[in-house]
Amino acid sequence: MSQDRRPLRYGETWVYESIVGALPGISLPAWAAVAIQLLVFELGVLVLAAYYDLWAAAVAGTAAVVVAAIGSVEMLRIGTLVRRIDVPGDYRDLLFSSNVEVVLSVLAYIALVTHLFVFDPQQGGETLVGRLFGPDQPILVVYLMLLVLWDVCYRIGTGWWAAITSLWRSARYRFDPETAAVLRRADLEILGFGLLQLVLVPFVLEFRVLLAAVLAHVVAVTVVMSLSVFLLGRQTTA
């Protein structure tokens, strides 16, 4: 994974990058931070699955951990691509400094928790939490589930905001071919991460609201990023 050689300044980083970079006395390369994230979460999933005999739930947990970890990689790759070229300050500020992705992530997470623990039980049938963890859900398992789901929601919220700002950028500004090529690659990274979230579909097939939410999200990101790439081509200077 290539990295921007210029030192990152807070205010032009994702919140995720700012937290990693702010750890006192610790300087981790990007690949190490992602590897630790993947290792810690996956180890937690496997240990708790073995202790409580929840191996079926471990499959869903592993899928969520992988989506979150790849989301971290994509955030770092997109950030590196955008920072290595000369882009309008408004776009850079919106993408990194506004923290709107955190607001979107919180809204998505609250909606998900409300669905899992309020809406789903009110339907009278089997709940997703009950299917995964049984009628008496272990506290540690639920804690880890909520932690991993926050990680997934944060990456999804970041993907939303990156997609929106990309479309706004492509519609508003013109770029030389070299800059446009880098931005197109960043847009395709955003699109790829959106499509990756389809791996969550098999685990929510029988839960129509969650299934519709995941599919609608993937379709929306695909449409927005396709339009961004199209406009970027139209706006490229000769």
Automatic annotation (TrEMBL):
Pfam family name, one: DUF7530
Organism: Halomicrobium mukohataei (strain ATCC 700874 / DSM 12286 / JCM 9738 / NCIMB 13541)
Keyword Nucleotide-binding included in the entry's annotation: no
Recorded superkingdom: Archaea
Transmembrane segments: 21-48, 54-73, 94-119, 139-168, 188-205, 211-232
InterPro entries, sorted: DUF7530
Protein's recorded name: Uncharacterized protein
Keywords, in A-Z order: Membrane, Transmembrane, Transmembrane helix
